[in-house]
């Protein structure tokens, strides 16, 4: 065999192997591992919470720290005026 024939034969073998593999994976999907979450209990889809941004006037550092400690999420806008803070807080209804 010449070098060109060997290369062509190898190329054809690779193509046929790829086609065979794709054919098996397409037509015999039972060979693959199932991906469905069959064993998970049915759960309702949670309703999306509405989010509001409200402006708060916080009298001092202690009150600001307490709000942060309670998990109130401030946006990036915090302005200080004579020891009093104006902040934008992200809130959701209870």
Structure description:
The chain is of the alpha+beta class. Strands 1-3-2 form a 3-stranded antiparallel beta sheet, with helices on one face. The chain has helices spanning about 5-25, 60-70, and strands at about 50-60, 75-80, 85-90. A hairpin with a 2-residue loop joins strand 2 (about 75-80) and strand 3 (about 85-90). The chain starts with a helix and ends with a strand.
Uncertain spans, ≥5 residues at pLDDT below 50? none
- Strand arrangement within the widest β-sheet reads 1-3-2
What's the overall average pLDDT, rounded? 80
Q: What would you call the structural class?
A: alpha+beta
Distance between the termini: 80 Å
| Number of distinct beta strands | 3
Count of runs of 4 or more consecutive helical residues? 2
Provide a quick synopsis of the model.
The protein is of the alpha+beta class and 94 residues long. It has helices at residues 3-27, 61-69, and strands spanning 52-58, 73-81, 84-91. The N and C termini lie far apart (80 Å).
Secondary structure elements and pairings:
Elements: H1 3-27, E1 52-58, H2 61-69, E2 73-81, E3 84-91
Task: List the keywords.
alpha+beta, 94 residues, 3 strands, single chain
């Amino acid at each position: 065999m010449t070098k060109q024939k060997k290369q062509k034969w190898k190329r054809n073998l690779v193509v046929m192997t790829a086609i065979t593999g794709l054919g098996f994976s397409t037509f015999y999907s039972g060979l693959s591992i199932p991906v469905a979450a069959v064993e998970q209990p049915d759960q309702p889809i949670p309703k999306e919470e509405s989010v509001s941004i409200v402006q708060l006037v916080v009298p001092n550092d202690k009150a600001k720290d307490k709000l942060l400690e309670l998990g109130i999420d401030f946006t990036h806008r915090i302005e200080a005026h004579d020891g009093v803070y104006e902040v934008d807080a992200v809130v959701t209804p209870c």
